[in-house]
From TrEMBL:
Keywords tagged on the record: Iron, Iron-sulfur, Metal-binding, S-adenosyl-L-methionine
Stated name of the protein: Twitch domain-containing radical SAM protein
Required cofactor names: [4Fe-4S] cluster
Keyword Iron: yes
Tree of life domain: Bacteria
Length: 448
């Protein structure tokens, strides 16, 4: 594998929650948002366009060729940035995940001189709209329709931007709804006709949302896989807030080769509840324990978005994972203690906004955590897991310290406080009460 190679452009078809097709989810951080364009400059959309054509769009063909030549491509800006900081980028994760099935040699063998491939995608990234039951502080209306009311009150706007599109919100009864059908792109029968034809080749389906376990169309897809007698060869992967796991999910999952659940948890107790409103950590923990005792084909990890509100809290979350001695959560080959990813947007929630003394305080907490793990991990975990955990903790904390220190965005601290105070007022919450240890460190920089 070369430094810039990633298997995704050869194996994945990635569909945003508005139906637009892109290179992969991480490419959304690039200037082009990773969107795949037709000859007339418009963006391929799964609701109306040919999926096979999109898979050999000029954008993807160019991306493949640049990877084979080990050249940087603007679409991969996020992974380039994270690799440079020592953060475990998606490029590294996917290269490891597919190393036994698809290598750079395989890519060269099926790629024409212009970047075209004749193979069908074996990996689907499906996002059926933005229906969700949470309105996380690190999220927005683009990924959660539950955000609409707070967005309008916070910013005084009944519209928001999703990519290059302006979405207007209108009052329908007692709630705000979008005035467009773009988040219902999947209602087009033509899409399903194409999708069902392509499922025979699929080995893995990644589904997000919104919250995928609340979206009926996700269950339609699972049911079709079972009906076609192909579920036994397919891995289903989720990013889920696991606040609700319907009974029918357990029944459908039993038919599949493997179920991977990335449980979105950003902290323990009040920290998680403050960030991921209106979730309750006790409920999440109970569902996590159900997953931990689930059938053998179900696996789980904790997916944490590292941001202003929880950067200092990472050590406590890591210790909590270790102390709970899970049977399955974070407990399979190669899995680190946490699956973290840094928040890039909005920038005023990035850990880079901390003043230097606060960054130094967080660095001290990370150093203390490393010592704690060296001295205590073996009390909770078997020897090999304890040793691996100590190494993983050091690697993760080192990477996120480097990410935090890589840029000074402390000029955005006032915008962070305006945003935080605004949501506190709307949601009847309190930064000081929910995360007092961080508030005390930031208070000198936020008060006149």
């Amino acid at each position: 594998m070369t430094e810039k190679f990633c298997p995704l452009p050869w194996i994945i078809q990635a569909i945003r929650n508005d139906g637009n097709i892109r290179a992969c989810s991480n490419s959304h951080s690039s200037i082009s948002k990773g969107l795949l364009h037709k000859a007339d400059g418009s963006v391929y959309n799964a609701g109306v366009d040919n999926l096979a054509e999109a898979f050999n769009s000029e954008d993807l063909k160019s991306l493949r060729l640049s990877m084979l030549e080990n050249k940087t491509n603007p679409i991969c800006a996020r992974c380039d940035r994270e690799d440079a900081q020592g953060v475990r980028s998606r490029r590294k994760v996917e290269s490891e995940n597919w190393s036994q099935q698809f290598t750079i040699q395989d890519a060269k063998a099926i790629t024409s001189v212009d970047g075209t491939v004749s193979a069908m995608p074996i990996y689907l990234d499906m996002r059926f709209g933005n229906k969700c039951n949470l309105k996380c502080r690190s999220c927005s209306p683009t990924d959660s329709n539950f955000w609409y009311e707070d967005h309008a009150e916070l910013w005084g706007q009944t519209s928001f931007n999703d990519g290059n599109k302006k979405i207007n919100l209108i009052r329908e009864g007692s709630k705000l709804v979008e005035d467009t059908e773009m988040y219902r792109w999947y209602e087009n029968p033509g899409f399903w006709d194409q999708m069902f034809q392509r499922l025979q080749n699929v080995e893995q389906i990644h589904t997000v949302g919104g919250e995928p376990l609340l979206i009926d169309q996700h269950f339609t897809l699972l049911e079709k896989c079972i009906e076609m007698n192909i579920a036994h060869k397919i891995t289903i992967e989720y990013n889920s807030n696991i606040t609700v796991i319907p009974e029918k999910a357990w029944a459908l999952w039993s038919h599949f080769k493997r179920i991977n659940i990335g449980a979105s948890i950003d902290g323990v107790g009040r920290v998680n509840d403050y960030i991921r409103h209106p979730s309750r950590f006790e409920n999440i923990f109970n569902n996590l324990k159900k997953i931990d005792q689930s059938p053998d084909n179900i696996f789980c990890w904790i997916a944490t978005t590292v941001q202003v509100y929880n950067a200092h809290h990472l050590p406590e979350l890591m210790k909590w994972v270790v102390k709970n001695k899970f049977n399955k959560v974070q407990r399979f080959l190669g899995m680190p203690i946490l699956n973290c990813h840094p928040l890039h947007n909005p920038q005023f929630l990035s850990t880079k906004i901390f003043p230097t003394p606060v960054k130094e305080w967080i660095s001290e907490l990370y150093a203390e955590c490393n010592i704690w793990m060296e001295e205590n991990a073996h009390l909770y975990l078997e020897k090999e897991w304890a040793e691996a955990t100590v190494l993983h903790v050091k690697e993760i904390l080192s990477a996120y310290e480097a990410h935090m220190q890589s840029e000074d965005l402390s000029n955005l601290l006032p915008k962070f406080m305006t945003y935080t105070r605004g949501l506190d007022s709307i949601r009847k919450e309190s930064f000081e009460h929910s995360i007092p240890e961080l508030w005390e460190k930031l208070k000198p920089y936020t008060l006149p």
